[in-house]
Design a protein that fits this description.
Radius of gyration: 18 Å
Number of strands: 4
Structural class: alpha/beta
Oligomer: single chain
Distance between the termini: 53 Å
């Protein structure tokens, strides 16, 4: 049996595919002032940045990281890829890795910056997205929205990439303070 392993973020074709997200953003909004996306391994941001810089060079591109896992912020401050020494697992499991890979550093160091947000800000953003857009956003997506809402991406037209809804509903409800409904099989509903 033959196969081909596609790295989940450190692959040129994967990064190029992620760039199509920026093409869609620029098709709908030709003049964003900034784009904010969560940082997992960096492939999503590298693709977004490549397309945005080529087609809208004045737009800033920011990473969004949770305070519990923000290796890009410390790497940008040091000018080299580093591990995040006080990494802590959280519900923001699609973003906020332990380190920036050496192979991703040349792409990620070109970002405008990293916006680090608290877990409380992430849960508020997740709730706001659910209430206003009726979208269930996972922690990584909430991280991007929280960063965009923080004001640190600048003024004007700020795009937050809501990249996933991979969170189970009971956990989502717990995080955003929603009151869970009884299961549909509950006899008291009849």
């Amino acid at each position: 049996m033959h196969g081909h392993f596609v790295h989940p973020f450190d692959d040129d074709r994967f990064i190029a595919g992620n760039g199509t997200l920026a093409l869609e953003v620029l098709e709908d909004l030709a003049d964003p002032d900034a784009v904010v996306a969560p940082l997992g391994g960096g492939g999503l941001l590298a693709g977004i940045m490549a397309v945005t810089r080529a087609l809208r060079p004045s737009a800033k591109v920011f990473a969004a990281e949770p305070e519990t896992a923000s290796p890009l912020a410390v790497s940008l401050a040091a000018g080299r890829p580093l591990a995040f020494e006080s990494w802590t697992a959280s519900f923001v499991d699609g973003a906020g890795g332990r380190s920036v890979l050496d192979s991703m550093w040349p792409l990620l160091r070109e970002l405008t910056g990293s916006i680090v947000v608290s877990l409380e800000d992430v849960t508020r953003a997740m709730r706001q997205v659910a209430e206003r857009a009726h979208v269930i956003a996972e922690g990584a997506a909430g991280c991007a929205v929280a960063a965009a809402l923080s004001g640190r991406a600048g003024q004007g037209k700020i795009v937050a990439v809501v990249s996933g809804g991979n969170i189970d509903l009971p956990r989502f409800a717990e995080l955003v303070g929603a009151v869970p409904r009884p299961p549909l099989s509950d006899p008291t509903l009849s």
